[in-house]
Write a sequence for this structure.
C-alpha cells in the first residue's frame, strides 16, 4: 500500500503545471529565456500567463516620450517653411469680341458652362469661361495675376472695363 501511495505522490508531482513540457509551451519558454532589450522593462508572472505588466519607470518614460512628441509636433506646425499665400490680382482688362463660343456641361444639362475664344490686341488667342452676358457683343476680359504672373483670363462686368 505504501508503494501505491508513493506512486500516487510522484504522479501528482509530475502532473503539476510547472513540470509539464508540451510542444505548445516550448516557443514561450524559448522566448522567456531570451534576453531582449524589453525583458528588463516587461515582466510576466507565470501564474498569469496572458497578462504582461509594464513597470512604472517605463510608464513614466512612455509619458515623457508622448509629451515630447506632442510638443515637437506643435513646434513643427508653428514653424514657417517659407510658404506664403498666393497674391491674386486683376491685371490688364480688355474689351473684346468673342469669335468662337462652345458650351460644355453634364449629360443631363443640369450644369452648363460656356467658353469663349478671344483675340488680344497683341494677336494672342486666349480661352476664357464666360460668366457675364455680353454688352453689344463685347466682353470684358481681365488677366488674373497670381504672384505677378498671368495664369488665366476671366470675364468681368462691363462696368469694370469702362
Amino acid at each position: 500500500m505504501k508503494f501505491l501511495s508513493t506512486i500516487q505522490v510522484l504522479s501528482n508531482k509530475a502532473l503539476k503545471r510547472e513540470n509539464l513540457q508540451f510542444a505548445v509551451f516550448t516557443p514561450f519558454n524559448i522566448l522567456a529565456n531570451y534576453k531582449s532589450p524589453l525583458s528588463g522593462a516587461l515582466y510576466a508572472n507565470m501564474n498569469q500567463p496572458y497578462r504582461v505588466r509594464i513597470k512604472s519607470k517605463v510608464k513614466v518614460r512612455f509619458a515623457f516620450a508622448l509629451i515630447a512628441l506632442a510638443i515637437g509636433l506643435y513646434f513643427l506646425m508653428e514653424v514657417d517653411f517659407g510658404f506664403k499665400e498666393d497674391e491674386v490680382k486683376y491685371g490688364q482688362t480688355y474689351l473684346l469680341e468673342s469669335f468662337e463660343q462652345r458650351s460644355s456641361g453634364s449629360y443631363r444639362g443640369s450644369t452648363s458652362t460656356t467658353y469663349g475664344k478671344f483675340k488680344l490686341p497683341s494677336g494672342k488667342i486666349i480661352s476664357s469661361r464666360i460668366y457675364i452676358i455680353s454688352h453689344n457683343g463685347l466682353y470684358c476680359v481681365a488677366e488674373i495675376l497670381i504672384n505677378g504672373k498671368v495664369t488665366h483670363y476671366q470675364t468681368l462686368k462691363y462696368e469694370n472695363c469702362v
In short: DSSP finds three helices and seven strands in the chain.
